[in-house]
Specification:
The chain is an all-alpha fold and 280 residues long. Helix content is 79%, strand content 0%.
C-alpha cells in the first residue's frame, strides 16, 4: 500500500512536469532522482553473488521496463490520470499466464474473481453507454495515451515475474537499486537526444524542487514493491499496487479537475477486485 500511494503521487508529479519539460526528460528525471533513495541502499547491502539466471532475467527486464516507462510518461501527458491508469488493471489478467509460466504463481478462485472485477470496472470506465459492445475497445484505441498505457500493461505482465526471478537470484534491496541505476544509464543518452535543452534545464539547481520530488517518491515506491515481490506471488503484489489507480484518479480530480464523479463507481469496482485478489 505504501508503494501504491507513493506511485500515485509520482504520477501526479510526472504529469505536472510534462507541462514544462519534454516527456523523455521527465522519464529520465523520474528514474534518476529515485537514486536519491535507492543508491544508498546499494552501498549498504553490497553486491551479492549473481548467476546466469539473474543476468538473463535482468537484461530482458531492463529492455522491457525502459520501453514501458517511456510509454507510461507519454500516456500521462496525453490522457487523464483517471482514464489512462485504470488500464493497468488489465495487467493481473495477463499475469495469470506469464506469472504461471515463469514462476508457477497462480491465485485461487477469489483471485480470479478479483481479476474479473478489475476487467469489468475498466470496461465500464470506458463505456459511453451508447454504441455496440466493442465501443469501449474503440474508445481505448482512439485515445493515444490510453493505447500507450495498454501496451505498458502488457509489458508489465512480463516484467513482474522477471522481477521476482531476479530478486530470488540476488536480493530485493540490491535489485531495486541496481535495476534503477541501469535504467538511468540507458535513459540518459535518450533524454539528451530527445531534447537536450530541456535535459540541461532539468539539471539546473533552480529546477531541482520541480523535478526531484517525482523521482524521490518513485524511489520509495520501487523499493517497497521490490521487497514485496520477493515475498509473494507476482500477480498478488501487482494487483495490490494497482490501488494506486484509485489514489491517482482521486488526485487527478483534485489537481487536474478531471471528472472523477462519473468514474468513481467503476474505479470502486476495481478496488473490490484488488481486495478479492489479496484475500485469495
Amino acid at each position: 500500500m505504501i508503494s501504491a500511494f507513493t506511485d500515485a503521487s509520482a504520477n501526479v508529479l510526472a504529469k505536472r512536469n510534462t507541462k514544462t519539460f519534454d516527456p523523455m526528460v521527465v522519464t529520465w528525471a523520474l528514474a534518476a532522482y529515485s537514486l536519491i533513495i535507492l543508491l544508498p541502499v546499494l552501498f549498504i547491502v553490497g553486491i551479492p553473488t549473481l548467476d546466469t539466471t539473474f543476468w538473463l532475467a535482468f537484461t530482458i527486464r531492463t529492455i522491457l521496463d525502459v520501453t514501458a516507462l517511456i510509454l507510461y510518461i507519454r500516456a500521462l501527458k496525453y490522457t487523464d490520470l483517471s482514464l489512462s491508469l485504470p488500464l493497468l488493471g488489465l495487467t493481473p489478467l495477463f499475469l495469470l499466464f506469464t506469472g504461471f509460466a515463469i514462476n508457477r504463481d497462480f491465485p485461487g478462485p477469489a483471485g480470479v474473481a478479483g481479476v474479473v472485477a478489475i476487467l469489468v470496472g475498466t470496461y465500464w470506465l470506458y463505456s459511453s453507454g451508447k454504441g455496440s459492445f466493442f465501443q469501449p475497445f474503440s474508445a481505448i484505441y482512439q485515445n493515444k495515451g490510453a493505447l500507450m498505457m495498454l501496451i505498458v500493461a502488457v509489458l508489465w505482465a512480463f516484467t513482474t515475474p522477471l522481477h521476482k526471478v531476479a530478486i530470488i537470484h540476488s536480493n530485493a534491496y540490491f535489485y531495486a537499486a541496481f535495476g534503477q541505476l541501469t535504467i538511468v544509464l540507458v535513459l540518459t543518452p535518450l533524454a539528451v537526444w530527445s531534447n537536450g535543452r530541456d535535459f540541461h534545464k532539468a539539471l539546473r539547481f533552480k529546477n531541482f524542487s520541480k523535478v526531484a520530488p517525482v523521482g524521490v517518491v518513485s524511489g520509495i515506491s520501487i523499493l517497497t514493491q521490490m521487497i514485496a515481490q520477493g515475498m509473494a506471488a507476482a500477480v498478488l503484489v501487482l494487483s495490490v499496487k494497482r490501488t494506486s489507480i484509485v489514489f491517482s484518479s482521486i488526485m487527478g480530480g483534485v489537481f487536474f479537475y478531471e471528472p472523477i464523479k462519473k468514474r468513481i463507481i467503476p474505479i470502486t469496482l476495481m478496488v473490490v477486485g484488488v481486495i478479492l485478489i489479496s484475500l485469495s
